[in-house]
Amino acid sequence: MAEKYFEKALADFAVDFASGGAIRVLADKGYTVRQIKERLDFPLSMEKVRELVWKHYVDSRVILLEEPDNAPLHERVKYEKVQDSYGHTSFKQVIITENSNQNDKVREYVACDFGKRMYQDRNAFEESLKALSDDDRDYILGLPWPLQTVWHVRNERMARIEKVTRGQNENVTRGTVPVVTYEAKKEKHEKRI
Fold first, then answer.
1. pTM for this entry
2. 69-95 residue pLDDT tens
3. Which residues make Cβ contacts (< 8 Å) with residue 94, sequence separation at least 6?
4. Domain assignments of the chain as residue spans, ordered by start
């Protein structure tokens, strides 16, 4: 058991070292999973690229697995060096809790149930995406959408997808419901250690 865990950790480290940074940068630039795979020098399966892009989007809060208002807060721990009146140095642990990784910025999210719709009837779902551009269709079909509703940040691509799918019939518009906005909140807790 420990040997398999070590092998998986080593393989994940090798993939992250060889391609992880490139995958994250290309994903942030708006490349689809297929385009990212084509640009990699290190051979990776499409499934592994898909998994890494999804993990990056979730970690960077481009995609939320819970409704934005109920999304778990991110905590960052920071240590500050302090001196008391006698000159003794100690460290103070500061925990910064925030809703967003982008300070004081309002982000809009679009609710997406692509995974559920794809699972129910893949052919009908792909047919409903034909009105989209090839890149937008590849973007949606390239990600491993879960069977639950997730929230995607409303960027230029999602605005285009929303605009195209809004004009279609009721079954299609379930994938893009009204935009949800929330404001980043920050709280600071200090603890002396």
1. 0.69
2. 755 566 677 788 888 888 888 888 887
3. 77, 78, 79, 80, 188, 189, 190, 191
4. 2-60, 73-104+184-192, 106-182
